[in-house]
Amino acid sequence: MVALLNHIIKITLNDGRTLMGKMLAFDKHMNLVLADCEEFRRIKKKRKQGDQEVSEAVEVKRTLGLVILRGETIVSMTDEGAPPEVEEDKKGNVCGRRLPLRDSANSRIHRCHQDQVAECLQAVVWACYLLVSINSRF
Fold first, then answer.
1. pLDDT tens for residues 67-89?
2. What CATH number did the domain enclosing 90 receive?
3. Domain count along the chain
4. Which residues does 56 contact at the CB level (< 8 Å), separation at least 6?
5. CB 103 within 8 A of CB 110
6. Quick check: 16 and 42 in contact, CB under 8 A?
7. Beta strand pairing call for 52-69 and 74-81
8. Domain residue limits at 69
9. Residue 114: helix, strand or coil by DSSP?
């Protein structure tokens, strides 16, 4: 799952909806945070054509933005595209701190990127905790 961070993913939910967005974070329950998320639904429209009713499926698109998605509603998840390359990524910099991506001495990835992922995951866990505690009151 770490390999899918910042990738565009397509998620099918158990109610038939499909979400597509950039995966920012996840946790051990597979709760996800998606940015620039769009929802796709298939709606059957009925219309009369002469004596008969004809139903046709129409796909409706809705822009949601930032979404926190509960993991138990996910049926399937596919990778739709890699994240776009940023000019700084081409130079080997990460985190906007002008640090090289790999340490030349022992070829390890710097910790600043790992720290950002950990902070994002912590925010997801707190957001999910708040959602569960708010929903349990009603």
1. 999 999 999 999 998 876 766 55
2. 2.30.30.100
3. 1
4. 44, 45, 47
5. yes
6. yes
7. unpaired
8. 2-137
9. helix
**8-38 pLDDT, tens digit each:** 999 999 999 999 999 999 988 899 999 999 9
| Sequence letter at residue 66 | L
Report whether 80 contacts 8 (CB < 8 A).
yes
Look up residue 31 and give its two tokens: 């709760």
**pTM of the predicted model, to two decimals?**
0.58
Q: Reduced to 3 states, what is the DSSP secondary structure of residue 135?
A: helix
Q: How many residues are recorded in the chain? A: 138
Q: Which residue is associated with the tokens 């991506």?
A: 101
The span from the CA of 67 to the CA of 33, in Å, is: 6
| Angstrom distances, CA of residue 7 to CA of 11, 35, 58, 99 | 12, 10, 27, 22
